[in-house]
Specification:
The longest helix is centred in the last third of the chain and has 36 residues, at 238-273. The protein starts with 8 loop residues before the first helix and ends in a 6-residue tail after the last helix. The chain is mainly α. Strands 1-2 form a two-stranded antiparallel sheet. Helix 2 runs antiparallel to helix 3 and helix 4 packs antiparallel against helix 5 (134-156). It has helices at 9-16, 21-47, 57-84, 106-124, 134-156, 163-191, 197-222, 238-273; strands spanning 85-88, 93-96. The protein binds retinal (RET). Retinal binds at residues 112, 115-116, 119, 148-149, 152, 155, 170, 173-174, 177, 214, 217-218, 221, 255-256.
């Protein structure tokens, strides 16, 4: 009984409705795309580190840490997908396998436990704060980042079995998320003071990217219930399963890779402004 172990909705869809070839493969492919991008971007961050002045290089180092951890965990997540479902030649669909493993998005959540604090600290190595104390911001980022993820991690176990628990843990997580958004807005506002206009523009783009890409994660958490709550809802099916993994992949590439690239761009503009020439 998968109800009794609080399995996530992908397993329920895989058990009762099955997944057609396209849905199953799209998830396998989008997960593979995810870790391939992380490996490619790892090289970008290593190869561009000397284009910024030494004091900004910790930002690239943190991107490297994020790329390695995301690569490994997305690789594990992809393996979890292929080991959870088995093709049934008679029915022509994939069904939940006979108990080797269930599918769970938990690898992602634990990956965020490393990556979220890294991504939040990263910007503090590029911008200079005019009023706030970097140490205080860093501690708050760390605390709220970890609390947001741990509460969400617990909540996701209940998405198909206990809607109340799922909603309460999700709501607690959201409080910490809002705190992070407020802090980030402040960091970017202060960071823009006294720097060249073109670097200010890039920081504005970073804020928009941050806001949109980070909101995709709660969107993916809510996915099975976004078009009607419960097992009869419009996305409690293979469309919802595929939509969730596509959403996660877009969010991962934006919040880790594009964000890191844009921070490198800001660091390069500031380096040039300060007279740094690449050796
Ligand atoms: C959860 C649970 C439901 C409520 C909210 C959530 C927010 C998650 C976020 C995750 C960001 C992850 C990143 C990872 C990069 O590696 C936990 C889904 C608000 C914002 C940026």
């Amino acid at each position: 009984m998968i109800e009794s172990v609080n399995a996530t909705f992908e397993n329920f869809v895989g058990q009762s409705q099955g997944l057609n070839e396209m849905a199953y493969q799209m998830v396998a492919h989008v997960l593979t795309l995810g870790y391939a991008v992380m490996l490619a971007a790892l090289f970008y961050f290593i190869l561009t580190i000397r284009t910024v002045a030494p004091k900004y290089r910790t930002s690239s180092v943190l991107s490297v840490v994020v790329m390695v951890s995301a690569f490994l965990l997305l690789f594990a997540q992809a393996g979890n997908w292929t080991s959870s479902f088995v093709f049934d030649a008679e029915k022509g669909k994939y069904f939940l396998g006979d108990g080797k493993d269930l599918f769970n998005n938990g690898y992602r959540y634990l990956n965020w436990l490393i990556d979220v604090p890294m991504l939040l600290f990263q910007i503090l190595f590029v911008v200079s704060l005019t009023k706030s104390k970097p140490n205080s911001i860093r501690n708050q980022f760390w605390f709220s980042g970890a609390a947001m993820i741990i509460t969400g991690y617990v909540g996701q176990y209940f998405e198909a079995t206990n809607f109340t628990a799922y909603a309460i843990w999700g709501a607690i997580s959201t409080v910490f998320f809002i705190h992070i958004l407020i802090l980030m807005k402040r960091v970017i506002k202060e960071g823009k003071e006294g720097i060249p206009a073109s670097a200010q523009k890039t920081l504005n783009s970073i804020w928009v990217l941050f806001l949109i890409s980070w909101m995709l994660y709660p969107g993916a958490y809510l996915m099975p219930h976004l078009a009607g709550i419960g097992v009869d809802g419009g996305l409690f099916n293979e469309t919802g399963v595929v939509a969730r993994q596509i959403t996660y992949t877009i969010a991962d590439v934006s919040s880790k890779v594009i964000y890191g690239v844009l921070l490198t761009v800001v660091a390069r503009k500031l380096s040039v402004e300060e007279g740094y020439v690449e050796a």
